[in-house]
User: Which sequence fits this backbone?
């Protein structure tokens, strides 16, 4: 007797998944854009025509041309290459910070729901405090204090994301905690944690994916914003936000230096938003068609 | 002399499910005379509510459509009537009350506002006069301390009270036909009796006709003049109430009556009807009750029987191969 | 009703204290010696010690904590290292600008967002619906600083309708308004996107309710059903829009101020950060903490007033 409600194997899950995607076309668009961006990031070393740090004073501040598809910046660096490498940073920070926050938050949420009482109050109280602080401010504070680098940036975002997932995980934990089959399972020798995991996760999987996707969109935006402010990864590492910041000085005469990276940020954030949104519409029974 | 108030003919309404359009009611035909209560009975899913919604054109859009048929009200076909004209009829000549009084009233508006609204939009009275009218209506449905109730919000009232308010709202336009969709199902038995008594009185006073939808045969016996039994989107049997109870012809009607627990029978002698109503996307060919019917013969599962008159006065019709009459309504001998 | 108010107040206070504590801890974690940061590492030991005393850093941490907490509630947030003036004063000088911007952004958001949201809900799955939804998705996805840059490029530089740098003289109302337009539009864009979506989902839920069906059955005109019956109920959760989206508002107004070089709390934080003016930074964070908790409290209470079910308990 299996205590895990999901059955049917991988093949059925995949066709189920495709069905879910099909219900809302937006999620397909998001997925395609996403895969496009990910490929750009992954294959950046091979796709970039130039080394992103390569300075060439002779060809600085050039608009789009045959040699430089997206032009050059004030140091003569190829913008396209910098954008491709910048994709790595944004996507990495965005995804990892949210995954970290998801992992930590879910565990804390389950802990709070399972242990109840003081543990619950304490954990959720701390979560509430962190949730009250706007993501950008949290990022500002953490990075200002700990220093601007990839790791701190990731931690900062993970800190604001975690409480949201704690919330998501806590409710089903509480409702499942007291159900009869927990007793039955315990009698059969399964550890409580395994029982709970088996029942809680299928329940919240959908929400995790939707929320995860939407929060990665936010995380990418925050990373770009912090980089723009100057609190991102230090130059010469190319980040999209940083590129916009550098281009801002020449905004009147050479606007493309700021415009192009922004387009990529927009597409990436849009992709994750579409994915999360589309999936949410497909999963939420209230928003369905008939 | 009875006048035909509402003539429904071949009414067919379909819904759009994930795998296509399926009819919820098919070729439904019946009449409603003036000054009578027609009960529409059947299990959940048989299409009784859909019928009422189709008549009022309140079907949820998108995802639903009236495929064919006509609903003649004073000679005018309601199907295909422009929405502006339909709106004028709704709430005035044609009124409807619903099953859930708890959720059918707007929580953000007072009782007075919700009743006065009908008068304001249909009669064009001023707001003040409309409110006065609302007070009169509350008294008419026998709500105590009506004047204070006008400023109350729905959540201040009990279920029975709310249903009375619903009735008051529906009477505001002086309806000729009231469609009541299981108005007492969600109420306590004692409150049920009160509300039914109220509806009875009102019907006499206002000379109103009612289409009363219910699944409770006890209520049918109490309120109906004529009864239409529905199954699987079709009309199974239609007859005056005494005839139906005394002499149920359709196997489904018979089973329905037998399944009602009675005080004069052994309480262990419960007779539920085996099986379930098929969902609209899985309707069988032929008679839809066949798979649950103990009288079924071969043809039942192949071909849908027609509605045939089975008594000399012509007011009792049945749709059944086994128990239907020898001749069809057009006079031809049957199989 | 009173119980509701008291309960909410009771919950707000511990959160405020917790957030302030968090601010305190974060600022103190800064590695290195703040005095040295200000005076440079060539400074003499005496000068450093004197500055440390002046900054209140030579007393035990616990004492610093209590000084900080009591000061926060009294309005004494210390003095800015840069200007020497009281932090609270600095904040008060720029607060009107931030308030202008925030209110303008919210108003734009509501004025455009609510009708658009109603449209998409009522005309669900129509072309209008899809177009509006795509636009709001874009609105959400634009980083606030990027849209600000684009707005400047188009309206300030290309069309020359508005100033590039937003630094109005507050007493000159027309200038104040003119300098507000683009920043407010930037913030408003995002708010419209959010409010459209939340109005849409709220309306969709309400339109399915039984009482909407009843209203239709009564023959009430369509517009009245949508506005008086549906929207009135749908707006109840949206009333809390400011509290709901406070994080969005704050974050995006900071970015807007930075790009437009407009005075305000956001810009103050940035300056404090770059100049390592920790008392100022701490002070602004304290102000934000108060704003967040108080605004959430107010929206909670407003919700209680607006929802008749809560009001009449």
Assistant:
């Amino acid at each position: 007797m299996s205590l895990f409600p999901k059955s049917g194997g991988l093949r059925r899950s995949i066709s189920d998944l495709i069905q879910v995607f099909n219900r809302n076309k937006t999620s397909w668009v998001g997925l395609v854009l996403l895969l496009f961006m990910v490929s750009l990031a992954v294959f950046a070393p091979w796709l970039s025509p130039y080394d992103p740090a390569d300075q060439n004073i002779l060809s600085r501040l050039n608009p789009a041309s045959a040699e430089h598809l997206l032009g050059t910046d004030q140091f003569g660096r190829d913008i396209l290459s910098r954008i491709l490498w910048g994709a790595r940073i944004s996507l990495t920070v965005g995804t990892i910070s949210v995954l970290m926050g998801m992992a930590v938050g879910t565990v804390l949420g389950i802990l709070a729901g399972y242990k109840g009482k003081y543990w619950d109050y304490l954990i959720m109280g701390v979560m509430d405090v962190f949730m009250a602080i706007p993501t950008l401010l949290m990022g500002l504070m953490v990075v200002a204090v700990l220093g601007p680098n990839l790791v701190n940036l990731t931690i900062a975002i993970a800190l604001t994301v975690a409480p949201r997932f704690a919330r998501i995980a806590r409710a089903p934990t509480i409702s499942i905690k007291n159900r009869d089959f927990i007793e039955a399972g315990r009698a059969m020798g399964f550890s409580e944690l395994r029982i709970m995991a088996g029942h809680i996760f299928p329940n919240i999987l959908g929400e995790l994916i939707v929320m995860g996707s939407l929060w990665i969109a936010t995380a990418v935006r925050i990373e770009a914003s912090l980089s723009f402010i100057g609190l991102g990864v230090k130059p010469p590492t190319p980040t999209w936000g940083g590129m916009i910041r550098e281009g801002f000085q020449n905004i009147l005469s050479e606007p493309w230096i700021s415009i192009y990276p922004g387009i990529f940020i927009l597409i990436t954030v849009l992709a994750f938003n579409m994915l999360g949104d589309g999936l949410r519409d497909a999963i939420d029974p209230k928003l369905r068609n008939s | 002399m009875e006048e035909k108030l509402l003539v429904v003919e071949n009414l067919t309404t379909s819904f759009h499910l994930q795998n296509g359009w399926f009819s919820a009611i098919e070729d439904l035909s019946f009449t409603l005379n003036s000054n009578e209560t027609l009960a529409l009975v059947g299990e959940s899913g048989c299409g009784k509510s859909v019928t009422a919604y189709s008549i009022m054109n309140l079907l949820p859009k998108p995802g639903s459509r009236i495929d064919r048929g006509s609903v003649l009200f004073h000679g005018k076909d309601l199907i295909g009537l422009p929405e502006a004209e339909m709106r004028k009829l709704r709430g005035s000549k044609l009124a409807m009350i619903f099953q859930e009084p708890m959720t059918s009233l707007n929580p953000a508006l007072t009782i007075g506002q919700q009743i006065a609204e009908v008068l304001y939009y249909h009669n064009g009275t001023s707001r003040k006069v409309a409110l006065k009218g609302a007070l009169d209506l509350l008294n008419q449905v026998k709500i105590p301390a009506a004047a204070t109730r006008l400023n109350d919000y729905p959540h201040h009232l009990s279920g029975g009270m709310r249903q009375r308010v619903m009735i008051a709202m529906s009477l505001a336009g002086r309806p000729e036909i009231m469609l009541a969709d299981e108005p007492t199902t969600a109420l306590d038995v004692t409150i049920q009796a009160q509300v039914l008594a109220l509806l009875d009185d009102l019907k006499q006073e206002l000379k109103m006709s009612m289409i009363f939808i219910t699944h409770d045969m006890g209520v049918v016996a109490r309120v109906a003049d004529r009864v239409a039994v529905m199954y699987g989107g079709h009309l199974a049997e239609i007859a005056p109430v005494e005839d139906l109870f005394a002499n149920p012809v359709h196997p489904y009607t018979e089973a329905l009556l037998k399944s009602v627990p009675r005080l004069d029978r052994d309480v262990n002698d419960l007779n539920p009807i085996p099986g379930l109503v098929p969902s609209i996307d899985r309707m069988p060919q032929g008679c839809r009750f066949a798979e649950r019917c103990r009288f079924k013969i071969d043809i039942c599962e192949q071909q849908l029987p027609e509605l045939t008159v089975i008594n000399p006065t012509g007011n009792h019709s049945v749709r059944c191969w086994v128990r239907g009459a020898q001749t069809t309504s057009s006079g031809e001998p049957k199989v | 009703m009173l119980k509701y108010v008291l309960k909410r107040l009771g919950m707000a206070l511990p959160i405020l204290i917790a957030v302030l504590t968090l601010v305190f801890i974060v600022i103190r974690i800064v590695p290195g010696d703040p005095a040295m940061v200000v005076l440079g590492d060539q400074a003499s030991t005496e000068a450093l010690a004197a500055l440390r005393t002046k900054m209140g850093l030579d007393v035990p941490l616990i004492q610093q904590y209590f000084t900080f907490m009591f000061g926060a509630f009294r309005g004494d947030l210390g003095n800015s290292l840069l200007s020497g003036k009281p932090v609270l004063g600095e904040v008060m000088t720029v607060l009107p600008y931030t308030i202008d911007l925030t209110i303008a952004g919210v108003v734009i958001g509501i004025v455009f967002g609510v009708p658009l949201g109603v449209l998409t809900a009522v005309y669900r799955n129509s072309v209008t619906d899809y177009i509006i939804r795509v636009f709001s998705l874009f609105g959400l996805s634009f980083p606030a600083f990027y849209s600000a840059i684009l707005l400047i490029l188009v309206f300030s530089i290309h069309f020359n309708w508005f100033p590039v740098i937003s630094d109005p003289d507050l007493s000159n109302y027309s200038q104040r308004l003119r300098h507000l337009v683009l920043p407010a539009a930037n913030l408003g864009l995002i708010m419209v996107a959010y409010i459209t979506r939340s109005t849409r989902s709220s309306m969709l839920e309400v339109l399915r309710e039984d009482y909407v069906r009843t209203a239709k059955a009564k023959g009430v005109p369509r517009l009245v059903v949508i506005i008086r019956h549906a929207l009135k109920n749908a707006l109840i959760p949206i009333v809390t829009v400011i509290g709901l989206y406070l994080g969005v508002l704050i974050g995006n107004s900071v970015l807007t101020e930075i790009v437009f070089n407009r005075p305000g709390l956001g810009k103050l934080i940035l300056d404090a950060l770059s100049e390592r003016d920790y008392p100022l930074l701490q002070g602004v964070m304290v102000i934000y903490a108060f704003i967040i908790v108080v605004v959430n409290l107010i929206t909670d209470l407003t919700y209680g007033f607006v929802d008749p079910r809560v009001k009449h308990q």
Notes: The CA atoms of residues 23 and 290 of chain A lie 12 Å apart. The first helix of chain A runs from residue 9 to 23.
